[in-house]
User: Fold this.
Amino acid sequence: MWIKIIRPDAVLVWRDPEVSRRLKWYRSVMLSRSPAKFMIVRSLKAPDNFRELSEKELWRIHDELHLEAEEKIKENFEKGINEEKLKPAEPSYLDVKIELSKRILKRCRFCEWRCEVDRTKGQKGVCRLTDKVYVASFFHHHGEEAPLIGTEGQGGSGTIFFVSCNFNCIFCQNWDISHPREKLESAGIEVDAKKLALIARKLRVDGAANINYVGGEPTPNLRAIIESLKYLDVNVPILWNSNMYLTIESMKLLLDLVDIWLPDFKYWSNECARRLSNVRGKIGYREAVTRNLLLAAEHGDMIIRHLVLPNHLECDTKPILKWISENLRDKVLVNIMDQYRPDYLVLAHPEKYPDIARSLTTEEIQEAYRYADELGIVYRPIS
Ligand code: SF4
Assistant:
């Protein structure tokens, strides 16, 4: 028997004027008062010969259409779905994005590792994925932040968990899908773009407030995710739940497709990012993530997550909160997460990682909240 779970805070949260203001586009799509951005993107006509163009020329067309999409997104706020005006164009701006994502996959530059391997020929980079996509599970997630699980009548966040990750966090709680001990394919089922669209459709039809792409990490699967939007025939907000170590190219592909960003801002110190998550790509963790957060917040709604780690208040938590207060304080919501528990490699070898081999103390949690209050960061109503 299907039991509908209603979390009272999922309704009450929208009474907070700051939540409603900062997430106004997302809420409007969630309630189908506005079309999701992907519907607008695929309604814009692209040149018929776009597949014959060089990557450089394709980006020029992409960037021109991006400006058009931005205008149309503004126009469509709270206008409801106009089937006629949103009829998919053939070929469309979305087709240009799909083509670009296929070319990136051939010399993979989806994330800042920039492995440049040809994944279409079976080559693998740091994430160990070829061009195959594996979904570990998908379901209506009722444990996400209050604005993400829907108001009355909706059934949680429609979360799709992808296998594999471009990070290797030694405390990962999803290590069985991020870094399965056996082959990657043993941790999920293989899907293509059409199957991914069917999964998203089913989640929305069954009441999901949004489609929440997560993992592991969704970034290595960008080509299939973008292509799936060509086949998705329901209006639903697209939520990007990510470590945000994306390249500028991936960001450009996503900026006018994502309705709400859910970035995980883990570290301020690049040394912590290297030691605890093995982030050693072409540019530093902090440089990539802060750049991408600024870009994303300029183009969409956002809830930033930060998991407080024991003994990392001074090197990570406080500078992160300070940066948010100086750069994004009036634009985003923040979820300061206090549920850290040792897991994965930390649990197996606590002697190797003594700084994070325990849970947080009450003093550490309170100090993180006190500091956020002092900076005027909005975080309390959503978690
Ligand atoms: S997604 Fe990132 S880690 Fe994976 S192959 Fe591409 S650049 Fe490398």
About this structure: Residues 8-375 form a domain with the TIM Barrel fold (CATH 3.20.20.70). The mean pLDDT is 95.
